[in-house]
Amino acid sequence: MNLKKLAILAVDDERIILDSLRIQIEKTFKQEYLFELAESAEEALEVIDDLVGEGIELLLVISDYQMPGMKGDEFAATIKTKLPHLNIILLTGQITEQKSFDLVNRNIVLKVLQKPWKEKDLLDVINNLLANAEQ
Amino acid sequence: MIAPTLPINEAERLNALKSYGILDTLDEQEYDDITTVASEICQTPICVISLIDAHRQWFKSKVGLEASETSREISFCGHAILNPTDVMIVEDARKDERFHDNPLVTGNPDIVFYAGVPLVDENGFALGTICTIDSRPRALSQQQIKALKILAKKVIASLSIKKKNSLLEQSRQFLFDCINFSTPYYFLINSNNEIVEFGQNFKKANSAIDKGRLFSQFFYWNSRFDAQKLLDDSDLHHRMLFFTSYDEKQKYKCSVKRNDENTYFIFATPIINTQLPLANYVVNVTDFPKQDYIAEYLFLQQASTKGLEDSKKLNDLLRDKNKQLEDSKNTLVNLNAVLEDRINERTKEIKSLALFPEQNPNPVFEINYGKKEIAYINPAAKQKISQCESFSYDELIQKLHISEETISIKDTSKITFDLNGKFYERNIFFLEEKQIFRLYLHDITEIKQIEKQEKEKNDAFIRQQQALLEMRSLPQNMPLDDKLKIIHQKMAENLHCSRTSVWLYSDDHSNISANYIYNQINQTFIEGITIWAKDVPAYFKALGDKKVIEATDAEHHPATFEFKESYLKPLQIKSRLDVPLLQSEKSIGVICNEYIGEPKTFSDNEISFARSVADFIVLAYETEQLKWSQEELKEKNNSLNQAIKDLIGLQEDVVQQEKLATLGMLIAGIAHEINTPLGAIKASNENLEQGLMNGLIEKLKTTPQELITQSLDLFSLLKHYSKNHTTREERQFIKTIEEELNEKNTNIANKNSLARKLVELGFSKLEPALTPFLIHPQYQIIVDLAGDLYKLKSSTQTIGLAVDKAGKVVRALNTFSHGNIENEISQFNLFENVDSVVTLFWNKIKYRTSLINSINKQVLITGNAEQLSQVWTNIINNALQAANYECTIWIDYAEDENNHIISFSNNGPEIPAHILPKIFEAFYSTKKRGDGTGLGLNIVKNIIEKHDGKITCESTEQNTTFTVILPKL
What we know:
The complex is a heterodimer of chains A (135) and B (969).
Chain A: E1 6-11, H1 15-29, E2 34-38, H2 41-54, E3 57-64, H3 72-82, E4 87-92, H4 97-105, E5 111-114, H5 119-134
Parallel strand pairs in A: 1-2, 1-3, 3-4, 4-5
Chain B: H1 10-19, H2 29-42, E1 46-52, E2 56-63, E3 69-71, H3 77-80, E4 88-90, H4 103-106, E5 113-120, E6 126-134, H5 142-181, E7 185-189, E8 195-198, H6 200-205, H7 227-232, H8 236-239, E9 245-246, E10 252-257, E11 263-270, E12 281-287, H9 293-328, H10 333-354, E13 364-368, E14 373-377, H11 379-384, H12 393-399, H13 404-408, E15 415-419, E16 422-431, E17 436-443, H14 445-472, H15 480-495, E18 499-505, E19 511-513, E20 516-519, E21 524-527, E22 530-532, H16 537-544, E23 549-551, H17 564-571, E24 573-583, E25 586-596, H18 604-702, H19 705-718, H20 727-744, H21 751-760, H22 771-774, H23 779-816, E26 826-829, H24 830-840, H25 842-845, E27 850-853, E28 860-863, H26 865-882, E29 888-895, E30 899-906, H27 936-946, E31 950-955, E32 960-967
Parallel strand pairs in B: 27-29
Antiparallel strand pairs in B: 1-2, 1-6, 2-3, 4-5, 5-6, 7-8, 7-12, 9-10, 10-11, 11-12, 13-14, 13-17, 15-16, 16-17, 18-19, 18-20, 18-25, 19-22, 20-21, 23-24, 24-25, 26-28, 29-30, 30-32, 31-32
Helix pairs in contact in B: 2-5, 2-14, 5-9, 5-10, 9-10, 14-15, 14-18, 15-18, 18-23, 19-23, 20-21, 21-23, 23-24, 24-26, 26-27
């Protein structure tokens, strides 16, 4: 059961965002992935540790930028030190184009999506990743 | 009231005053002129020359005052003389402890203002004052005080001249008396009638005479003449025959006939101012019967010798006095010369009188009035009075002003008259036995001339003072140029100069220029010129000394010689008087007075006048400058008013900008606050639209009715479970449920997946109510369907929540920036107003800051909601920035009868005590440059004050509290 070992992690301090994302992704990919939620970067790091401990592969992290404590960019940079190949998407309502360009350019995040985001944009990213993973 | 004390030298001062012989004399024009001028210069209704006697002040001259004297006790001048060198000025006597209850203040003449200049004589005695008085409070200008001082000197000068004249007169009288009546028999006797000295001739006539013997033993003598006593005196016949007269001036004249039948003429003169302490009288006894030409000659000779001695004594006395005078008073410099001249004159006169008519340098006529013939004309007369030889008797006595009466009463009084253009004083001797009188004419033309010059000088002084007065009376608003033109003319008239001009320095003092030059000859103004320092360095150097340049010989004067060829010669200018224009010790220019004709020496009075004119011109310029600076000030004031108006506009702009700056700071956070719910809304909406509905409808189509019913039952269960769990809790719940499922050892294939779904549906444990659904073989379909229904509901809820959230932010923004309704006063809910601000800050405070808003939700306050929002924003923002977003903020409300009290406390860092007083000042900021406008708290204060409220701040190590007090309306 290869599929069962893939997980997607969403991080946002706003519960409504997490709930919306879960519905959006589960609706499309059914039970193909574990969908984990965390309300802060610190919690997300714990979840990642757990997942890695359980031998579950993390396909993608979708993170808010403006969060309590560690911010999205810092969080992404922290994960990258542990899991250099992990794909991270920043989902934010408050980041300049210059900043997002800079983050993508430095290969810290895969993509920056502006809130409110289009479902299609998010799903396209996930589908691309899946396609690459299968190869 | 305080009565004046006595000067320490009072006794000497009174003697000095008495020596002038001025007390209780009649009015004199000379003094009245001075008080009139003083009164006009000082613009006071009253002016007096007051002399301080032992117990009274006596007014020599007065303007505007009836009384001729007052007691010394109530006098102002009695105070003034105590400081002889100072001008005493009392601006308001009603407020002066010395005078406030003085009868002269409380009653007529209602003195309020007093200015007195002490009249100090050459020995330093303050005799009195010249003072000006007004019945209203006022002050004198420096110029007025100066003029008053000059007039005081003038009074003293007049008094001194009078005194000298009187001394002179006395001595002259004395000498002439000696001359008229001295004989070989003269005595000095003291008050006891004892003979102190006597003529040696009498010793020959009567060897019994000696010093110390009574004069009355030889002649009839009594210091008190009593006619009755005289007749009763039986002893009388032994000594005298009769006496003729006793005159008022305490000079005793009497004719006596001694036992030896000879007739004598006794003349006794009281001695004053002499060095003979014992002797009271000089007594001359004339032996008339033996009188002849020889006797007359001897008499003249002897008298003149004696007279000369006395004259010399007097002369020395006067010299001493004059010397003192010279030392002390410049104004009296000329007097010395005049006196000297006069004394010389008298000496000459006396000497000449002593000469026998033939040698006498003065004209002498001898006339026989019995025969009406001219008996003798001396050579001097023939020489000096042309054709006097051809005069008839009648002609001559007419020309010599001798009337019938003169002859009949033997009038020997002196008369002055003019003859052939010269002034003569006439002295007559009658030789009655021969019916002859002899006339000695003394040429006093020169003396008359000096007197005339003195008078002219005096008149000129008065004219100059009047000219100055007229200048000062020029209307204030008269243009400077017109004023100057009048001054030019007055200056030329009074200094008798042909050309006058006013020159002003350029800013760098490299040149002086005159706008025009006044030509007195044709009374026109001609165009002025500029004179450069480089062309006439010596002249500029002299100007630099700031002294009067008095160039009688202008061509050779060290200051003005440079003008010789180019200016002085062509214009025939001989003398010039240049007076610097000094403005507080600084020279601003010079006035030039140029004299054409014979070289002219400018008198002290003229120089003093020119100085006064210079002072006046400076004053005129100052007035003009003042006028200019006043206008400038007015302009500046106007532009200042405009600037203030602009500033008020600007301030409104700044307040607006400050608001926008705060808004800008918040805007990034606000974007996040809005975009987050928008993201949720969009996602949920897409979920609903594209996925859930379609998927659910498809599922419902294919699902058996029994399972749908089961799903709906499960779904209805979900209503009881709230969803307020954290993700961390949820993960725990998943583990719990998974474990429980394992314990039940059911046939459920993927327990983890089921557990996740159940937690997603809101369960935190395996509820008993779930059992019927979980034991159903199709439990997966039931749970999925219920899950889909739940997701429908959840998405709708999410949208609702998100809309609320976004709406709240938008409302907060709206409250913060209330459109255009700037000054609207309304009643609003305080909690909501504060909460809307808190909302805007939410993304900044939700992590590390606690904000506890304890305001009673019912409180309504009245005010400008938008502006008060700005207040809360500023206070909260300051607290957050100061604490670096890590603190707790308590917002509390209290009230008293009249006020709402809203406090914002935080446990952030203390505001240092030295900063605390400044925090409400405009542009005071502790933040980095660019971080704050420095206006926040100033605007806060302004807004609160606009609401008639108060804001205070207290700060301790534990707590910083801003308290806003707003009145209840």
